TrEMBL record:
Taxonomic path: Bacteria, Pseudomonadati, Bacteroidota, Flavobacteriia, Flavobacteriales
Spans traversing the lipid bilayer: none
Protein name, per record: Mevalonate kinase
Presence of keyword Phosphoprotein: no
Pfam family membership, one: GHMP_kinases_N
Residues in GHMP kinase N-terminal domain copies: 54-148
Single annotated GO MF: ATP binding
Keywords, in A-Z order: ATP-binding, Kinase, Nucleotide-binding, Transferase
Keyword check for Kinase: yes
InterPro entries found in the cross-reference section: GHMP_kinase_C_sf (IPR036554), GHMP_kinase_N_dom (IPR006204), HddA/FKP (IPR001174), Ribosomal_Su5_D2-typ_SF (IPR020568), Ribsml_uS5_D2-typ_fold_subgr (IPR014721)
Amino acid sequence: MRNPLFYAKILLFGEYGIIEDSKGLTIPYNSYKGSLKFNKKSTGKISNESIDRFAEYLEQNFGDEFDMEKLNADIDKGMHFDSTIPQGYGVGSSGALVAAIYERYAINKIDIADGITKGLISQLKETFSKMESFFHGKSSGLDPLICYLNLPLLINSKTDISTIGIPEQKEGTGAIFLVNSGAPGETAPMVQIFFDKLKQEGFRNTLKEEFIKYNNACIDSFVKGDFNPLFSNLKKLSTWAFLHFKPMIPQRLLDAWQYGIQTNSYYLKLCGSGGGGYVLGFTKDYEQAKLHLKEFDTEVIYKF
């Protein structure tokens, strides 16, 4: 078996907003990765059993789109997903698995080696959305899409997604970084909270008039490498999330979240659905931010 690696992903901007057609920006994160391997020992047993249940779902929902005979035979041989991507941390653990299964077993898979167009991206997203729904109840398909393409993606709307170049990293004092809340989160309950909030007219209005405005402005500034307006809008975005996404912010991070806004030393935002796992930090002075966040493990994902 070829063992292509599938890397983690980070949704820099667009969490929840992309459900309501805000822009989104997602990037690969190559510090974590996974691949399909064979192992009859206990180390791969839990993953093997999970893939077995996933295979049943694929057989029921995709007809003859996957080589189920080959997949089931490999599961019987002890195939599992050998991964360093932490589960429940918002960095695409299930997305990488979905991408790996698609790459290996889809009968008429879209081969990105021949080039990628918006039309092909849309087809892949639709397939991945249906596949990953097994794990989350409802999925946009974006996580497996970026894990499969391993390229930064700009989401303009649900039906308009394209690859995009982002500014090269520089050895400056600024950084985008992950903050570990100390415990995993569950996607489905957080998404349900969001949908419950959407039933309130006041929340729908502030999402469209404020959150989407700040989110889209952050993306535009980041892509241009224009960091002053980026941080101005990051403060507004972080403040808005503190007011309206508080149930999704890991409890242990609430004080740190507020402190960053009050001191302007860093700004935090959700990384994925929230509830636990990682949150994202943005700062112009990473060493100073680390001092304020010394209770938490942090890791840099982008320098400027």
